[in-house]
């Protein structure tokens, strides 16, 4: 199953929906008796800027006061959280409330989904490696490889928001059956052309573009469908496990692809990827519709794309995490540029070092996903702290004097980067009205996935002109600056101020409520 940058559950680097439907806008935000309670929150809300974000006014979508993400003591998980309004099927009595690392796997529908992704994500990574190798073999051009990658991401940049509109209108599970089948057929067609000896480079270009078109709908549909499978109480755990799944495949898939390419040829990697989609398709067919958290779909109407953009623009708890992810995706996640330059130019260690750097970062990302699964809640202060740590670690790594120190720093960088991705993804989903979730997640994934292709040329130019250390440090500094600025903006919106002090002999930074005098001076 093709994933986004977290994907990078998104591409994931990414970064990643049933016959169930969405809550009507008019009912989202109410919490009748019998609706599932909101997830547990931190009892000390004054330290979290997100928890004090003022309530958004009723939007064009019809969200009432009290919609998800507007309570003063939660990060988008107030009573009336998206998905618990009238007309929403109540959560299955089997839905666990545990916050253990793998608690969402107790939900049968999500377990089927997860097992399908284990197989399909591995196949996706195999095809990525085989696709690049095949293009290089056919053309001998690295530029042609770049064109293939661009064609795969271009549809998301051009049509990503329209994909979100479609996802809000369509039932998620049948939609995913169509998109997964389309990607399976693309892999099988490429396998047939390669194994028969008739493949040409334009065939690979066309296949990459076709996969990108399917991803335009598949990505937001999968993101939205997770909440319908597990409910709000298990959303962070499920999103985190999706990321862990993707990172595990990132470790296994390329290794298997390498063995197949050297042993029997690239065509077999394409064939196995096409067949791997049998697993997620079977999982979707075996799900029990009555156990899904069903919500009403958004009816077809004019101006729904603009309506989605206005909805996000009017919600600080949505727009600022998306802006932060955009900065980090554009300037902080250009690891193919930096790691290859460090391996070749800085340490003169060749492809082996490049492979080592990527493997250690994948291990760190896997650890970060599992830690996020264990936390069980998504707070914006965790997002801001992880983003600052991510940028700081990049700056430290940029100055690392030895190859082994640089390589070891890839592990905490992977942990921090994955924490940013999972926390932003979960907090945005939890704070979004179900009737808007497809459009909001499409915007989220478009910003995250589309950032790297836009930022990579600039970062590459800086790296070529001034060296890998300057390029890497610049990416880290931009990430730190964006996270710090957005953290202060959220604190101000929440009526908080930064408090610097000492606690048990160590410096301590907290957000505390402004006094009335400070609030008066701030408005003068």
Give the SSE order as H and E letters: HHHHHHHHHHHHHHHEEH
Major β-sheet profile: 2 strands, antiparallel
Oligomer: single chain
> Would you count the extended β strands for me?
2
Strand order of the largest sheet: 1-2
Shape, principal axes of CA atoms: globular
Structural class: mainly alpha
Measured between the Cα atoms of the first and last residue, the distance is: 54 Å
Fraction of residues in helix: 55-70%
What's the mean pLDDT score? Answer: 76
Poorly predicted segments = 1-98, 518-524
Strand content: under 5%
Rg measurement, Å:
22 Å
- The number of helices is 16
Report on the structure:
This protein has 524 residues and is mostly helical. It is built from 16 helices and two strands. The chain has helices spanning 108-139, 142-169, 172-195, 201-230, 235-263, 266-276, 278-286, 304-313, 316-332, 335-346, 350-375, 380-398, 403-430, 437-466, 468-493, 516-523; strands spanning 496-503, 506-513. It has a two-stranded antiparallel sheet with strand order 1-2. Helix 5 packs across helix 13 (403-430). The radius of gyration is 22 Å and the shape is globular.
């Amino acid at each position: 199953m093709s994933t986004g940058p977290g994907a990078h559950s998104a591409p994931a680097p990414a970064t990643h929906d049933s016959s169930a439907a969405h809550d009507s806008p008019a009912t989202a935000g109410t919490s009748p008796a019998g609706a599932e309670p909101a997830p547990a929150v931190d009892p000390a809300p004054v330290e979290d800027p997100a928890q004090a974000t003022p309530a958004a006014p009723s939007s064009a979508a019809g969200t009432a006061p009290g919609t998800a993400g507007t309570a003063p003591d939660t990060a988008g998980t107030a009573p009336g959280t998206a998905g618990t309004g009238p007309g929403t099927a109540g959560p299955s009595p089997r839905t666990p409330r545990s916050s253990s690392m793998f608690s969402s796997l107790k939900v049968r529908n999500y377990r089927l989904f997860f097992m399908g992704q284990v197989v399909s994500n591995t196949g996706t990574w195999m095809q990525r490696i085989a696709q690049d190798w095949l293009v290089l073999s056919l053309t001998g051009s690295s530029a042609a490889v770049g064109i293939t990658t661009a064609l795969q991401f271009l549809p998301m940049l051009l049509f990503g928001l329209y994909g979100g509109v479609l996802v809000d209108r369509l039932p998620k599970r049948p939609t995913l059956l169509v998109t997964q089948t389309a990607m399976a057929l693309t892999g099988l067609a490429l396998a047939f052309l390669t194994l028969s000896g008739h493949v040409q480079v334009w065939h690979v270009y066309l296949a990459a573009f076709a996969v990108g078109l399917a991803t335009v709908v598949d990505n937001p549909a999968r993101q939205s469908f997770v909440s319908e499978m597990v409910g709000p109480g298990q959303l962070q755990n499920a999103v985190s496990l999706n990321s862990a799944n993707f990172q595990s495949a990132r470790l296994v898939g390329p290794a298997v692809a390498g063995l197949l390419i050297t042993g029997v040829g690239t065509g077999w990697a394409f064939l196995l990827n096409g067949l791997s989609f049998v697993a997620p398709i079977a999982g979707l067919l075996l799900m029990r519709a009555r156990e899904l958290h069903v919500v009403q779909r958004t009816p077809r109407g004019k101006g729904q794309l603009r309506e989605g953009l206005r909805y996000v623009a009017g919600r600080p708890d949505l727009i600022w995490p998306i802006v932060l992810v955009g900065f980090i995706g554009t300037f902080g996640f250009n690891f193919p540029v930096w790691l290859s330059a460090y391996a070749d130019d800085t340490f003169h260690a060749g492809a082996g070092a490049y492979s080592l750097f990527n493997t250690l970062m994948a291990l760190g990302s896997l650890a970060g996903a599992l830690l996020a699964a264990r936390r069980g809640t998504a707070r914006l202060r965790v997002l801001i702290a992880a983003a600052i740590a991510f940028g700081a670690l990049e700056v430290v790594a940029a100055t690392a004097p030895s190859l082994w120190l640089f390589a070891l720093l890839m592990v905490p960088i992977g942990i921090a980067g994955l924490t940013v991705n999972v926390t932003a993804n979960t907090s945005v989903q939890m704070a979004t009205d179900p009737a808007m979730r497809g459009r909001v997640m499409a915007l989220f994934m478009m910003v995250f996935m589309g950032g790297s292709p836009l930022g990579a040329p600039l970062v590459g130019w800086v790296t070529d002109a001034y060296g890998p250390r300057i390029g890497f440090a610049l990416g880290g500094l931009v990430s730190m600056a964006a996270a710090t600025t957005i953290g202060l903006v959220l604190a101000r919106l929440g009526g908080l101020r930064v408090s610097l002090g000492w606690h048990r002999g160590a410096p301590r930074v907290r957000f505390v409520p402004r006094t009335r005098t400070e609030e008066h001076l701030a408005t003068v």
